[in-house]
Amino acid sequence: MTATLRWASACLAAATLVLLTGCASPGLNRKAGEFDLGPLASRLTDPAGGLHLKAAGPLYERASDTNGLNFWAVRPLTSGGGENADRSAGEVLWPLAYAWDFQNSHSVRVLTSFYTDYDTTNPDSRWQWWCFPFWFQGRTAGGTNYAACFPLGGTVRDFLFQDEAFFVLWPLYIHSVLNGEHSYHVLYPIFCREHNERNDRFRVWPLYGWNIRQGDYDKRFCLWPLCSWARYDRPGASGYGYLLFPLYGHIKRENQESWMVLPPFFKYGTSAHETMGYAPWPIIQWQTGPMEKFYVWPLWGYKAYGHIHGGFYLWPLGWWRHFERPGEHLHRYTFAPFWMSESEWGPGRQVQTVMSERAREPLPPLKMAEANAATTNCAYRYWHFWPLCEYIRQNDQSRFRLLKLWPKRYGSMVEREFTPLWTLYQHQRAGQNSSDELLWGLLRRSNRGEEQSRFSLFPLVEWGHDDKNQSGGWHLLKGLVGYEREGTNTYLRLLWFLKLGL
What we know:
Layout: H1 2-23, E1 35-36, E2 41-45, E3 51-55, E4 60-64, E5 70-74, E6 78-84, E7 87-92, E8 97-102, E9 105-110, E10 113-117, E11 127-131, E12 135-139, E13 145-149, E14 153-159, E15 162-168, E16 173-178, E17 181-186, E18 191-195, E19 199-204, E20 208-213, E21 217-222, E22 227-232, E23 239-244, E24 248-253, E25 256-261, E26 266-271, E27 275-278, E28 284-288, E29 291-296, E30 300-305, E31 308-313, E32 318-325, E33 328-335, E34 339-345, H2 365-375, E35 378-385, E36 389-394, E37 397-402, H3 412-417, H4 419-422, E38 425-430, E39 433-438, E40 443-448, E41 452-457, E42 461-466, E43 471-476, E44 481-486, E45 489-494, E46 498-501
Antiparallel strand pairs: 1-2, 2-3, 3-4, 4-5, 5-6, 6-7, 7-8, 8-9, 9-10, 10-11, 11-12, 12-13, 13-14, 14-15, 15-16, 16-17, 17-18, 18-19, 19-20, 20-21, 21-22, 22-23, 23-24, 24-25, 25-26, 26-27, 27-28, 28-29, 29-30, 30-31, 31-32, 32-33, 33-34, 34-35, 35-36, 36-37, 37-38, 38-39, 39-40, 40-41, ...
């Protein structure tokens, strides 16, 4: 029995070697250097001209395209890529570790540890290393070094909207600096003191405190949040306000006035340009003026401000957004996590009626269709239906894939390291060129316009034609038996290696 198994294994290995050796020979309608061994290995050009080298199904890939984008991956362990010499990134077991380069800066993240060198060409450049939340260290652009060990003590710079913060046994003592203004905290947030030319702050929370900004406001509280009041000194917006929580509140300024009952649930405010109200918050909210808003939360809501408008339905599941600028219209729709779509249009998408310049009359139907076609330009479209499929198109290039297991839009890390693992089927198109791939190359089909086409079901059968070069043919078992045509010559292929003229 053992001898029989050894003999069968040897025969299988020999047959595999012969098959793979034969498969490595040039196939039908392929460029020099290309080959196709189905899911085992391949080196092929996609419809857009990008070159892909793959092995072991989706586990290994190296690719580059005509725009300078390149990437490599050993899935699901590590991957990396770059758009050009100024931008590149890589990851190991994402999201555990990630690194990226942009121009002269270099950044690395491992778990909650972050390191950034803002100029790798300068040995004295700004850098920082934060092992959040315990260790903070770095050097500022001015060459000042800092370090801190939370919660014991030290100095942190450019953190949590502060230029600088020095602390000892946080929250026992904190000294922070923002825009040259110093504030001091003891047992944060209980005691706070700040006094300079612009600000005067004092707090013994929750008993009593004030916040005075010269020429702007004077805000105070007593037994927070029960009682608070303010005086406003800004020219054109001076006035007063007070709040007796949770009963009543009133703000009266030169440019606005508002009332609150059982705050924050009921509120009404008005100004020269807008009105707003809650009845009660957060269920019913409305606003008119530069910002238009109406919510019946969580069922439905709408908000518009300038060139941006959108809303929600069945919050937090459904959302939509529209961005409209001269020459650009961007539309997004989401019903999380199942559906998401996005499209970007050129100018003229909103045109409803096209008028002739001379007669100011509607154009004839044919001219109307031509005008609408000329002003409708969808330059980009994306949608996905989780967890089944996704589609993306940009200009004349598009891609459709099954499956779609990541519930959000693909980021570059997920795209490189994980997406091909669950992509069972993919269709790509670029202009007149297209390709299909099923089960990582078990079945492949490609068209290059109407002149070239190829189909393969590895390792059983493949056929194709190239009218431009007057070639074509078919193979069984990657060349065990086959027929090939090159110009006016025809050949019979036998046993992978033999090529007999007919």
